Amino acid sequence: MAVFAFKTASRAVLRRTHFPSRPQSQPHFTKRHSSNHPATRPKAEDDPASGTAIPIPATVANVPLWQRLGPLSRGFQAYGRSQRKRPYATQFCSSLVIYFLGDLAAQKINGDEYDPKRTLRALVISAGSSIPSYKWFMFLGNNFNYPSKVLSLATKVTVNQIFFAPTINTYFFAMQSFLSGDSLPEVWERIKNTVPTSMINSCKLWPAATAFSFTFIDPQYRSIFAAFITLGWQTYLSYLNRKRGIKSTSFAAVK
């Protein structure tokens, strides 16, 4: 019996030495947060039932009117992309289209039979004025910018009327007369008969159009805005050139 008890105790000692008992795992308790805890308590302003919820402001930016006109908006956007990538080519082609339509409208108003030579003269005049006109308005937009927006706008309008308006009008009527085959004295006579009248009438239109353009129109769309105004203006200039040309021819015949 003593031997059996000794063997049993030896086995127990060896078992404890080579195979230590695993510690009993502590029971896991999940901490339950109280609803009264400040971090979990719902805020009064977030509770719709409290009537004090703060509304979230709208994050959608206002879109200009001309960008909400369906196919017309896509046309404006395509023109803006072309203007940014190829400004000179875009301005050149736009000017050709404007002068072409303006001359067609003027011939229609006069009631005369369509004269393709007259349209060709208008396209030649457009080709010579498109890039300088674009460069001028870019210069005007990048300069005369003062802390006062009113002063900046008034300066731009005044400078445009004093320098650009008489220059472009003189160029238009002089080239119309020269391309028609008139001599230099006849060209000068055409300028004297047309430019003063056109300058007076331009003061009724272009200051307001220029002020509106530099105030509300983005730079990439200013040229297309001016194109719509120029379409009507070129129609008027073509009509005035034709009217003064008839008077000059009649005067020369009588003389």
Automatic annotation (TrEMBL):
<keyword id="KW-0472">Membrane</keyword>
<dbReference type="GO" id="GO:0005739">
    <property type="term" value="C:mitochondrion"/>
</dbReference>
<comment type="similarity">
    <text>Belongs to the peroxisomal membrane protein PXMP2/4 family.</text>
</comment>
<dbReference type="Pfam" id="PF04117">
    <property type="entry name" value="Mpv17_PMP22"/>
</dbReference>
<dbReference type="InterPro" id="IPR007248">
    <property type="entry name" value="Mpv17_PMP22"/>
</dbReference>
<keyword id="KW-1133">Transmembrane helix</keyword>
<protein>
    <recommendedName>
        <fullName>Mpv17/PMP22 family protein</fullName>
    </recommendedName>
</protein>
<dbReference type="GO" id="GO:0016020">
    <property type="term" value="C:membrane"/>
</dbReference>
<keyword id="KW-0812">Transmembrane</keyword>
<feature type="region of interest" description="Disordered">
    <location>
        <begin position="15"/>
        <end position="53"/>
    </location>
</feature>
